[in-house]
DNA sequence: TTGTCTCCCTAGGGGAGACAA
DNA sequence: TTGTCTCCCCTAGGGAGACAA
């Protein structure tokens, strides 16, 4: 068991250490958003949001594969949308796969509270990252057992600390932290004919530790303290299909609806998980965004918000 | 993607193949019971069982770590126990960890149907394995990178095909299927001074593929067709703490209770997952066993069935 | 009987420039 | 500019008996 706080794990701390449960410290938001992709945004804490129980249920149905199509009981007191106050958002990453997700605490509010409605303005506070970063899709050579990672020239010059070109060849040691605050160490060298930037020593441990394959992407961010952050985005592989082994998907569906109905009846807070890369539909959206869509007739009753599909190039 | 049916994967089919979802064919019951441990038994299909919603809820609470202690709504129509007909049992194994679990379809029955009660006799139909098998807890040497697996003499002679002792040294190739029907190939050799049975080539791939550590156990079974089956039992490590990323534990708790209440009200079937190694309490037990306990005053209202703790030696 | 050590030897992998797209 | 190949070298690890618990 490591001490909490900054774990200065030596290079080669294979991320597969199965002993650590949960996250030791809070996830870096820039890195989280980087891994989530350019199209993902979360409503700000304290704002009003619209929660769609049905959309939420669909995310879970998409994550699990439904086993049987048992009828779900009706929840007559459950509306198709609920105006909620977003109390809390915590960012998470699966310790096994580095998959990012968010936990949100919602509290249903009185719908006829006109004041609250007006308070939610349309300030486009894009809490998205503006920091310097680069994202590269891994080639077959990058993930092969022979040799390291070929760093695009522009990317290396923009993100990495400058090399001392008086050395022959110019090289340095890079340290980068992943979502779990593990430190990965790489040898960054500028060599070859023609010259190019490469990550050699340490790279293969990262690839095997994160179980990366050609087609997956890596993401380097230089934060405001000039520290390097390191994330991954996996290619869209099969939907994991974690058949749960804990709860039937029926019970999950029911659980979502019953929890929402209970919270709605009591105006009590409840908790949802939002997995930006797994789900096709957003089920928690800013009230302002919803209102705007309503009033510009872009949405009609029964329609749902759908996330645009990410393109391969996005965020590169 | 492999063809369904018997996949004659070559030795070294690392079980970590992340592409296969679900099981291709039904799990071998003998192997499943072997991996589950000697104290686990499942009620026979078609029999009457007692289902405890609270015990079920506790298993899930034990599997997840509860994040917040939000109050669970009351389900006034939900009794503390439900007599159910066990419609169906399917055996499963987690494709990542090989953890065994069972899926059961239950249907609440009319409690005042005396006839059904009497029909559930106490025939101790122990559907447990009587086949030849051995189970060994892995030593540091067994899991080290240098060398293979030391097979206990009695075990090798009882389970493995006999060696041809005219060879020098006597050796053969063994093939064994795991829970997912993957074939693992090992070189079985009798050598050393003093002589002993060893598994060499192929063993380290198995250890790394299953991510076995010293203290975990392996299990070899010879079935009625003289085929070798191969399973694992992991040492009791930390409770995985899969913080789900899908559903809050509150929603799960609610889902269990609401699903049970719904099924109870409508006499409709519902599905539960039973994880024998994760949960401290059984929540589906044969009605006959329950009645026997009741009538011999071994159980009182409010008590729950608890599984004995397995000892390290059990099943060896 | 079997767990651990050490020794030996080889296969696989890291690290380099060549070469071409 | 950068993806792939091949070559070279070295080390991690498999496979063997020694030895002791």
UniProtKB/TrEMBL annotation, chains A, B:
It holds the Pfam family B3. Residues 1-19 have a biased composition (Low complexity). Its main location: nucleus. One of its GO terms (cellular component) is nucleus. Residues 134-236 form the TF-B3 domain. It comes from the Eukaryota. PROSITE patterns: B3. CDD domains: B3_DNA (cd10017). Auxin response factors (ARFs) are transcriptional factors that bind specifically to the DNA sequence 5'-TGTCTC-3' found in the auxin-responsive promoter elements (AuxREs). It is found in: Nucleus. PANTHER family: AUXIN RESPONSE FACTOR 19, AUXIN RESPONSE FACTOR 4-RELATED. This is Auxin response factor 19. Residues 1-25 are annotated as: Disordered. One of its GO terms (molecular function) is DNA binding. Belongs to the ARF family. Keywords: Auxin signaling pathway, DNA-binding, Nucleus, Transcription, Transcription regulation. GO terms for biological process: auxin-activated signaling pathway; regulation of DNA-templated transcription.
């Amino acid at each position: 068991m490591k001490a909490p706080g900054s774990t200065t794990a030596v290079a080669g701390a294979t991320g597969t250490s199965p002993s650590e449960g949960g996250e030791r410290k809070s996830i870096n938001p820039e890195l989280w958003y980087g891994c989530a992709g350019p199209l993902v945004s979360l409503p700000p804490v304290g704002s009003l949001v619209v929660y769609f129980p049905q959309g939420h249920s669909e995310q879970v149905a998409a994550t699990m594969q439904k086993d049987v199509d048992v009828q779900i009981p009706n929840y007559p007191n459950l509306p198709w949308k609920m105006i909620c106050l977003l109390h809390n958002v915590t960012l998470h990453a699966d310790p096994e796969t580095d998959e990012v997700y968010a936990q949100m605490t919602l509290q249903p509010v009185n719908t006829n509270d006109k004041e609250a409605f007006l308070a939610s303005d349309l300030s486009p506070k894009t809490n998205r990252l503006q920091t310097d970063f680069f994202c590269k899709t891994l080639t077959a050579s990058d993930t092969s057992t022979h040799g390291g990672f070929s760093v695009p020239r522009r990317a290396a010059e923009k993100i990495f600390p400058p090399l001392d070109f008086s050395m022959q060849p110019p090289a340095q040691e890079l340290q980068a932290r992943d979502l779990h605050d593990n430190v990965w160490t790489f040898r960054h060298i500028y060599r070859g004919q023609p010259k190019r930037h490469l990550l050699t020593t340490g790279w293969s441990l990262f690839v095997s530790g994160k179980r990366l394959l050609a087609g997956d992407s890596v993401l380097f961010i230089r934060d405001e303290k000039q520290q390097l952050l390191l994330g991954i985005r996996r290619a869209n592989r099969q939907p994991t299909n974690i058949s749960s082994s804990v709860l039937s998907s029926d019970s999950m569906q029911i659980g979502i609806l019953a929890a929402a109905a209970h919270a709605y009846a009591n105006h009590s807070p409840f908790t949802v998980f939002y997995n930006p890369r797994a789900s096709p539909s957003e089920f928690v959206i800013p009230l302002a965004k919803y209102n705007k869509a309503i009033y510009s007739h872009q949405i009609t009753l029964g329609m749902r918000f759908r996330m645009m599909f990410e393109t391969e190039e996005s965020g590169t």
